Amino acid sequence: MIIRIMGEGQFDLSDVEQSVLQGFDDEVERAVEQGDETTVRDALKRLHDFITAKGAAVPDDYLGSSDILVPGEDATLDEIREMLNGDGFIPND
């Protein structure tokens, strides 16, 4: 699975425990539902930190598409809310 963090690049998370990744995604979704921007920012930062620490950076010349798009840390609460698809950013299996 290739995840693009807007403004940061793409990361291959094929070898990552998907339930752990999903947990971070669920945390962002719950925070957005609560509408607390500080909590949303904290949860989004934890998701980004997990993706960048556990994922393998995809080379800049990779021509394939991303499977998942995650907003950058500078996204507004409204922009984050718009990007959620009912399952968070990452579809539940």
Strand content: 5-15%
Q: Give the overall shape, derived from the CA principal axes.
A: globular
Largest sheet report = 4 strands, mixed
- Give the strand tally: 4
Strand neighbour order, sheet with most strands: 3-2-1-4
How widely separated are the two ends?
A: 13 Å
Q: Which spans have pLDDT < 50 for at least 5 consecutive residues?
A: none
| Total count of helical runs of at least 4 residues | 3
| Helix content bin | 40-55%
Could you explain how this protein is built, in words?
The protein has 93 residues and is of the alpha+beta class. 45% of the residues lie in helices and 14% in strands. The chain is built from 3 helices and 4 strands, in the order E-E-H-H-E-E-H. It has helices at residues 18-34, 37-54, 77-83, and strands at 2-5, 9-12, 56-57, 68-70. The chain has a 4-stranded mixed β-sheet with strand order 3-2-1-4, with helices on one face. The longest helix is centred in the middle third of the chain and has 18 residues, at 37-54. The mean pLDDT is 92.
